[in-house]
Amino acid sequence: MSQATSTAEEPQEPRRGHGHARRPPLAEVDSWELWQAWRRGERRFALPWIGLLVAFCVVLAGMYSFFFYSTSLDNDTVAQVGLTLLFVAFLFRIWRRISPRRGFALIVITLMLLISGLAFLTWLLAYALSGWNPWAAIGGTVSLGLIGLFIGLPSLNTISRQQDA
Fold this sequence. Notes:
This protein has 165 residues and is an all-alpha fold.
């Protein structure tokens, strides 16, 4: 015999897309709430999350520099355009998830693009000034990844301590 109805003690899972506000997964933070905390002066709460976001942007620039360098070895402009389109699609996906407030999310994505773009352009400038030396490209890519880690790990440790408290 199957139970066709549920009791009040058994909560049912809400179905996706049926009028329930989307709650970010555990690995995400609502950027609007973070902005509100910043505006309230809760810098100790907001700064580690901002640091984590900056670290993500720097690592993203490192990934893009790796793919840019890899595709430039064969002068594969089709792959470079494809990777750029994939990057734009990735940013669009993040824009849709970062906050239910689309205008605010666009500002956050613009800042992410600015940070990633500056890191990538710094890498590209160093690579160009080296005379397109492959070791400079590889070293710069590794450096971007390490810089991202050096920013992100202390931020994660601080967030972890805040959540334990």
